[in-house]
Amino acid sequence: MKWQAAAPSNIALIKYMGKTDGGNISTNASLSYTLGNLLTFIELEPTKDSTDKWEALNKEGCERIHISESGQARFLKHLGFLKKEFNFNGNFIVRSANNFPSDCGLASSASSFAALTMAAYKAVKDLKKADLKDYSLEALADLSRQGSGSSCRSFFAPWSLWDDNGARKVDLPFEKLHHQVVVVNDKIKQVSSSEAHKRIRTSSLSTTRTDRAQERLEKLMINMKAQDWKTSYEIIWNEFWDMHALFETSQPPFGYMSRGSLHVLDSVKSIWQNQNDGPWVTMDAGPNVHLLYRPDQKYLAQNIAQDLSAHFQVITNYV
Ligand code: DP6
Questions:
Q1: CA-CA distances (angstroms) from residue 309 to 22, 89, 103, 182?
Q2: How far is CA 91 from the centre of its chain?
Q3: Which mutation among 9, 14, 16, 143 tests ligand 1's pocket best, with the greatest number of atoms within 8 A of CB?
Q4: 98: alpha, beta or left, given left = phi > 0 and alpha = psi -120 to 50?
Q5: 166 C-beta neighbours (distance < 10 Å), count
Q6: Atom of ligand 1 at shortest range from CA of 145
Q7: Cβ pair 53, 47 in contact under 8 A
Q8: Which of 25, 144, 259, 316 is the most exposed place for a label (fewest CB within 10 A)?
Q9: What is the 3-state secondary structure (H, E, C) of the chain?
Q10: Ligand 1 pocket, 288 CB below 6 A?
Q11: Which of 15, 17, 25, 193 to mutate to test the pocket of ligand 1 (most atoms within 8 A of CB)?
């Protein structure tokens, strides 16, 4: 018997950056758009072995993934946590695959921890039937958050808000957006986002980070509701630079911005300057650049993809 689950990645417009010790409690609320085309697939198979084990899943359309020993240990630790929560003693072989490159700032931890949480719930529910209580999507998201914070937002689409009350779907306009990720450098990043959350505490900018993020979140939601694309773009732009400034003002400083990232950001900036319109742009804890376009901007998205693909891999999902 095998159980399967898939979960999408997400891209935050207001970032989860900074957390308290233990359990991934964010120091600020975050807002994300769910990336329905960037998926992690998980398969769980019961085993008589005395421990859980991770293996790469062979799946059409997916690259075979490699997860470091410590990455596997973190993933299996989350499975252990879920089994304890569900009061289940058996072990599993966990197989996973992503249909996008791993560990390069495409938030594979969000989709993989969400998919693992879903798959474990499905499997144990099926095995224990009525002996396991029903969990709402919000409750499963809360369990997933404890494995990797950003994964709790992947349970809701298209817009997901994670604040002190947990993660949930939030109704906002721009429900369908074309998405592009410009893969500037697909080498494994030096400082993981989990590590970045800790290191930014040493930045003098982090003392007021919660207030800045909260203010931007409120402003962004107001402007999205008013369908003000340009002001929203400006808020989103300031937010990811704020996060990258936190990185670069930490002790010691660290960063992800590469020459390629700056090239892409410059191209987007000049489009906005020339046309008074353009895509929303954001970056996570990595050098890749995410672009979001309204449905009527498909032609622009195609042109930008064509220009940038001379230098970079561009992964596009048109709606
Ligand atoms: C920059 O969710 O990867 O992508 O909770 O330690 O697993 P852990 O951190 P993680 O942090 C994501 C940070 C970010 C911004 C975001 O997605 O909000």
A1: 41, 49, 21, 8
A2: 28
A3: 16
A4: beta
A5: 13
A6: 5
A7: yes
A8: 259
A9: CCEEEEEEEEEEEECCCCEECCCCEECCCEEEEEEEEEEEEEEEEEECCCCCEEEECCCCCCECCCCCHHHHHHHHHHHHHHHHHCCCCCEEEEEEEECCCCCCCCCHHHHHHHHHHHHHHHHHHHHHHHHCCCCCHHHHHHHHHCCCHHHHHHHCCCEEEEECCEEEECCCCCCCCEEEEEECCCCCCCCCHHHHHHHHHHCHHHHHHHHHHHHHHHHHHHHHHCCCHHHHHHHHHHHHHHHHHHHHCCCCCCCCCCHHHHHHHHHHHHHHHHHCCCCEEECCCCCCEEEEECHHHHHHHHHHHHHHCCCCEEEEECC
A10: no
A11: 193
24 ligand 1 Cβ < 6 A? yes
**Residue pointed to by tokens 């409120």:** 218
- Whole-prediction pTM value? 0.96
Region of 309 on the Ramachandran plot (φ > 0 left; ψ -120 to 50 alpha; else beta): alpha
Compute CA 265 distance to the chain's CA centroid, rounded to the nearest angstrom: 20
pLDDT tens digit at each of 319 positions of the chain? 999 999 999 999 999 999 988 889 999 999 999 999 899 999 999 999 999 999 999 999 898 888 889 999 999 999 999 999 999 999 999 999 999 876 555 767 999 999 999 999 999 999 998 899 999 999 999 999 999 999 999 999 999 999 999 999 999 999 999 999 999 876 766 898 989 999 999 999 999 999 999 999 999 999 999 999 999 999 999 999 999 999 999 999 999 999 999 999 999 999 999 999 999 999 999 999 999 999 999 999 999 999 999 999 998 999 9
Ligand 1 pocket test, candidate residues 27, 142, 151, 197, most atoms within 8 A of CB: 197
Closest ligand 1 atom number to CA of residue 285:
1
